[in-house]
Amino acid sequence: METHRYTEETEELARAIVAYATERIRLEPTLDGPKPAAELRERVGTTITEKGVGGLEALRIFVEELAPACISTDHPLFTAFVPAAPTDASVLFDLVVGASSIVGSSWLEAAGAVYAENQALRWLADLAGLPPDAGGTFVSGGSAGNLSGLVAARDHAARSRRKRPARWRIAAVHDAHSSVWSAARIMDADVLPVPADERRRLTGENLAAALDEADEGGVFAVVATAGTTNAGIVDDLAGVAAVCRERGLWFHVDAAYGGAALAAPSARHLFHGIEVADSLVIDPHKWLFAPFDCAALLYREPRIAARAHMQEASYLDDINVSGEWSPSHYAFHLTRRVRGMPFWFSLAAHGTNAYRDAVETVLFLTRQVADDIRRREYLELVTDPELSVVLFRRTGWGDAKYTAWCDRLLLEGIAFCLPTTWEDERVMRFCFVNPRTTAGDVTALLDSMA
Ligand SMILES: *Cc1c(COP(=O)(O)O)cnc(C)c1O
User: Fold this and answer.
1) How far is 272 from 435, CA to CA, in rounded Å?
2) Which of its termini does the chain have fewer beta carbons within 10 Å around, N or C?
3) Cα separation, 411 vs 405, whole angstroms
4) CA of 228 to the centre of ligand 1 (A)
5) How far apart are CA 358 and CA 350, in angstroms?
6) 402-420: per-residue pLDDT in tens?
7) How would residue 43 be classed by pLDDT, with cut points 50, 70 and 90?
8) What pTM, to 2 d.p., does this model score?
């Protein structure tokens, strides 16, 4: 079987792939950008053939045609959505994970990897102040984490309440992440919308009022956000936690983006109350310098999650009786890449102080950018940034002007920025996670809005 024999050709391909990967890691990436499907069809054509095009040719197609049609999320001026900034160590180790064929479902199959992943999870749990028994698993992203956490929450409610409500409900404010609404739809639950306060946060007071008004019957969980995607705002976690405790509701904290700032002493105070979360999501692939895809899902009482998620079948008996930690029990998944390993490797290699410093660097950059905006007559901050998202307006500009400015920056390979909507107004949004982004880089962008 040619496909499974390591030949001289394989050796040549190995050298080419390692050379390309090393260069991609070593050099600052070009920004690149999407191309229309018709153009890709014309340039690339059909790649899947009966005889195969050969490894080197397939690699050439990727390097010359496909990769340039994908935006580099780790470019220092990728400021749209939530960018990525994986460490070199984590990306290098991702190659090792790929080469190792470890299935991260169970202790039986992956004890060594799960042991290491659990130490990385423990670091996050300690940052949040969760108890020693807390634990969970790495899943593909915040969306998967929110869904799995909420499924565990409902399972818990369904088992502990005597009566099933007509409709299950999740309490959240409008600015909670779209995946919360998606999770509710998948679970055939409704979202009880809670009005936000004047800073657009979910607060304990507003939550209590909304629950009273809605006579709370079917509410089983409250989702608080620690760092909204749109504006980087942290909800009143302590206030919300108190209401949840009082009323026996599951307290889920979505810190997919913002959770990284738990590592930063200058921002830690914003998260007061997170230590009593029943479930918590933090995405290392966002602001903790891990490659895609890597989200940490933690539970205060993991056995509750295992009751909800453990799959049972004769062919799984050996996994389930082992009594050791099996990641498949803690989310909706079975086969699983050990996607926490690149994060673990980099954390082990660099140490946690380096992570603290890298997150602080991004927070400092954000404050510098905010100051820069305050100094310019033609710009205005929309809100003072809490974490690393900056919302601002260019006086006299509307949606069309913002879009044209962003389009040009992408076309010229300078930056990938996108506007957003804030209180029905189109405004500009920068999200920073990359410690290599400099204030000077951003100054040049702001200059170009003059
Ligand atoms: C990004 C984000 C998510 C979704 O995470 P994915 O990894 O994209 O699935 C959920 N919640 C918040 C607050 C986010 O910023």
Assistant:
1) 25
2) N
3) 10
4) 9
5) 11
6) 999 999 999 999 999 999 9
7) very high
8) 0.98
Tokens of 77: 């001026």
Which of 234, 235, 291 has the alpha carbon at shortest distance from 258?
234
Which numbered atom of ligand 1 lies nearest the CA of 81?
Answer: 1
Is omega for the bond preceding 293 within 30 degrees of 0, making it cis? yes
C-alpha dist (Å) from residue 410 to 115, 291, 352, 390, 432: 42, 23, 35, 19, 17
Question: pLDDT band at residue 321, thresholds of 50, 70 and 90?
Answer: confident
How far is the centre of ligand 1, averaged over its atoms, from the C-alpha of 229 (Å)?
7
What is the mean pLDDT of the segment spanning 102-130?
98
Length of the chain: 450
What is the average per-residue pLDDT within 128-157? 98
Ligand 1 atom closest to Cα of 285?
7
Predicted local distance difference test score (pLDDT) of residue 318: 80
From 177, 274, 431, the mutation candidate for ligand 1 (largest count of ligand atoms within 8 A of CB) is 177
Which one of 73, 138, 143 would you pick to mutate in the ligand 1 pocket, going by the greatest count of ligand atoms within 8 A of its CB? 143
| Contact status, residue 173 vs residue 201, Cβ threshold 8 Å | yes
> Does ligand 1 lie within 6 Å of residue 235's CB atom?
no
- The residue ranges of DSSP E strands in 283-328, in sequence order, are 295-299
Give yes or no for a contact between 222 and 244, defined as CB atoms under 8 angstroms apart: yes
Task: Count Cα atoms within 13 angstroms, Cβ side, for 193.
Answer: 6
Percent above pLDDT 70 for the chain: 100
In sequence order, the 6+-apart residues with CB closer than 8 A to the CB of 51 are: none
pLDDT tens digit sequence for 201-233: 999 999 999 999 997 789 999 999 999 999 999
Give the CA radius of gyration of the chain: 23
Q: Which of 449, 27, 94 is nearest to 290 (CA)?
A: 94
Question: Which of ligand 1's atoms lies nearest the C-alpha of 144?
Answer: 9
Query: Going by DSSP bridges, is the β-strand pair 219-225/190-193 parallel, antiparallel, or unpaired?
Result: unpaired
Least confident interval from 50-64, 68-82, 208-222: 208-222
Any atom of ligand 1 within 6 Å of the Cβ of 339: no
Ligand 1 centre and the CA of 232: distance in Å?
Answer: 12
Give the 3-state secondary structure of residue 26.
helix
Residue with CA at minimum distance from ligand 1 atom 3: 142
Report the distance separating Cα 90 and Cα 138, nearest Å: 15
CA-closest residue to ligand 1 atom 7: 141
Q: How confident is the model at residue 323 (pLDDT cuts 50, 70, 90)?
A: confident
